[in-house]
Design brief:
With about 250 residues, the protein is of the alpha/beta class. Helix content is about 35%, strand content about 15%. Strand 1, helix 1 and strand 2 form a beta-alpha-beta unit. The longest helix is centred in the middle third of the chain and has 22 residues. About 35% of the residues are buried.
Length: about 250
């Protein structure tokens, strides 16, 4: 298996920050590029951070990569309005996926949510469902959608409601069996691992949907020792020019 390269959008968030660390410390990835609106605290020799306003993002801002991980997401408390929430959880992901397709990035992976449905009476689930549908309609080479239930773990900032929910789910998880397994809480680091795991170790169908049980059961495999590859080589545009897609060959 050759060395891989990745782009992560949403790396300043809870899962995104864990995913960046997972990718940088893995043997499979030689270089990781982050696109964020502010710098991140984590540093690594494989990591490059590009500060960019998503409103001004263009296809040329994306490196050539094997996988683009989108971990964007907000809450109504932070967004303040439904319009701002939709911008982060719907419009930005679809915009970035469109740019990735134009650039020729073969695999787009994104975090959605259990219960996502564009016809849902609940705003959150409806936005997630609409986001999924618009991504599917783009007909990407390979799209992986992750639908976790409640995410648990150490986050920046204290959120009383989430802490109470985490405590409840810690008690309920062992009791949620059979069809109720999909409601089990998932640690953020497990979701980050699952995204990495399925990016590297599974076949790339046109659309892959990973439900909570598949996220929870993603397991490590034996690591393969390989010689390090210089970042300038894996992001060499000439060596990967076959990945480019000409403008007139991209589906509108």
């Amino acid at each position: 298996m050759g060395k891989r390269t990745a782009i992560v959008v949403g790396a300043t968030g809870f899962t995104g920050s864990l995913l960046v660390k997972q990718l940088c410390e893995s043997e499979e990835y030689a270089a990781v590029s982050v696109i964020a609106r502010r710098d991140i605290a984590y540093t690594h020799r494989k990591l490059d951070v590009k500060i960019k306003d998503f409103e001004q993002l263009e296809d040329k801002d994306l490196e050539i990569a094997d996988d683009l991980f989108c971990c964007l997401g907000t809450t109504m408390k932070v967004a303040k309005t439904k319009e701002n929430f939709e911008k982060v959880d719907l419009h930005y992901p679809v915009q970035i996926a469109s740019l990735a397709k134009k650039r020729g990035i073969p695999h787009f992976l994104i975090i959605s949510a259990v219960g996502s449905n564009k016809k849902s009476p609940f705003f959150y689930s409806r936005v997630k469902g609409e986001m999924e549908q618009q991504l599917i309609d783009l007909k990407l080479s390979s799209l992986s959608i992750f639908r976790p239930s409640l995410l648990t773990g150490d986050r920046d900032g204290f959120r009383l409601g989430e802490r109470l929910a985490e405590g409840v789910f810690q008690l309920l998880n062992p009791l949620l069996i059979g069809p109720f397994k999909r409601f089990r809480s998932i640690e953020g680091k497990q979701l980050a691992y699952a995204m990495y795991h399925y990016a590297v170790h599974t076949d790339k169908n046109e659309v892959n949907i990973y439900k909570p049980i598949q996220i929870l059961t993603a397991k490590p495999i034996e690591e393969i020792e390989e010689e390090p590859v210089a970042r300038e080589d894996v992001f060499n545009w000439e060596k990967k020019k076959d990945l480019f897609v000409e403008d007139d060959k991209v589906d509108e």
